[in-house]
Amino acid sequence: MGYDVPVVVDSPDHAAKMIRRIRPDLIIIDLANMTDTEGIRAIEHLKQRFGIPILLITSYEATELLTNAICSGMFGYLTKPLLEEKIRTSISITLYRHTMETMMRKIEDRYHTIAELSDDLIFIVNSERQLEYANSAVLLHFNRNAGTVLGKPYLEVLSAEFVENLDDYISRVFWVGEKIRRQDRVKSPGGALWYDTTLIPLKDFDGSVNAVIVACRDITDRVRIEEQLREEGIRQIEKNNEQFHILNDQIRNPLQVITSLMESYGGPYSEKVLEQVALIDTLVSRLDEGWLESEKVRRFLIEHYQHGHPEPTI
């Protein structure tokens, strides 16, 4: 079939010595002289030690023990009689599956590393509402260790207001199967805290959601800075409004005096003077319009962001 068979051995111990030296792409084990328990033990030892795919050959149908091992992806499986096409297909499938498993493991390790390096709180909740994964930031935040929280109901081991607020949205992601992003404000002894949370569905091949990734970022500092900037902006608007009023009075009062004098005493330049007065009055009217727009902005910010100094109501 085009494959090289570098060595044939008669025991797991001999196999381990040769594998260390040869590093083959595939190990084929015949269970003819081993019990199922011995075979499984040998396979576990070889796979854990070397990470090389294994194809198992037996002369009978798989027992419950072997079936469980097959389902776990421990090895490929082939029964006698050994037909050529059957062997070729089993080898191809075993090698392909191992390649895919290796690729997926690398991807998983890469994303696991990214999650562990992140300061965000990242955890995975499965369909049973159990905590399937929690990164170091989560464990540190809740003063937990992975051994005591994984596999437990996540609301019990991650007890906090901002996590409890997410439960309905986690249910929605399971139901709808779409990503959700939201912000939550929660109380704390040190004041309000803000979290920006993204909930992402993990789907099976049939499209059903089997778990939800939750990534929570503490954005309290950013929100407080934004609030401070908004508050400073409102204060500046209020200051500008006050200056608009003063400027309006300071300009319009002299204009009224000039207009009265020109209309009363006239003169060769009265018409020109009144034209300029009208122009200045137009400019002042524009300042009034600017004041009205600033006042609208101020009222909007006060109403929606609770900043500034609202006028007292009766």
Short description:
The protein has 314 residues and is an alpha/beta fold. It is 57% helix and 16% strand. The N and C termini lie far apart (95 Å).
Plain-language structure description:
It is a single chain. The chain is α/β, with parallel strands linked by helices. The protein folds into three domains: 12-113, Rossmann fold; 118-218, Beta-Lactamase (2-Layer Sandwich), CATH 3.30.450; 223-305. The chain contains eleven helices and eight strands. The strands form two sheets. The protein has a five-stranded antiparallel β-sheet with strand order 5-4-8-7-6, sandwiched between helices. The termini are far apart. The model is unreliable at 307-314 (pLDDT under 50).
Topology:
Elements: H1 12-22, E1 27-30, H2 36-50, E2 54-58, H3 64-71, E3 76-79, H4 84-117, E4 121-126, E5 131-134, H5 136-141, H6 146-149, H7 154-157, H8 161-164, H9 167-176, E6 180-186, E7 193-203, E8 209-218, H10 220-265, H11 270-305
Parallel strand pairs: 1-2, 2-3
Antiparallel strand pairs: 4-5, 4-8, 6-7, 7-8
Mean pLDDT: 78
Task: Give the C-alpha Rg.
Answer: 38 Å
How many beta-strand segments? 8
Distance between the termini: 95 Å
Per the CATH scheme, the topology name of the largest domain is Rossmann fold
The helix-strand sequence is: HEHEHEHEEHHHHHEEEHH
Which strand-content bin applies to the residues?
15-25%
How many individual domains?
Answer: 3
CATH homologous superfamily grouping of the largest domain: Response regulator
Q: What top-tier CATH class of the largest domain fits best?
A: Alpha Beta
Query: Strands across the major sheet, in which order?
Result: 5-4-8-7-6
Counted by DSSP, the helix tally is: 11
Shape: elongated
Largest sheet descriptor: 5 strands, antiparallel
Ranges where pLDDT stays below 50 over 5 or more residues in a row are 307-314
Helix content: 55-70%
Helix and strand composition category? alpha/beta
CATH architecture of the largest domain: 3-Layer(aba) Sandwich
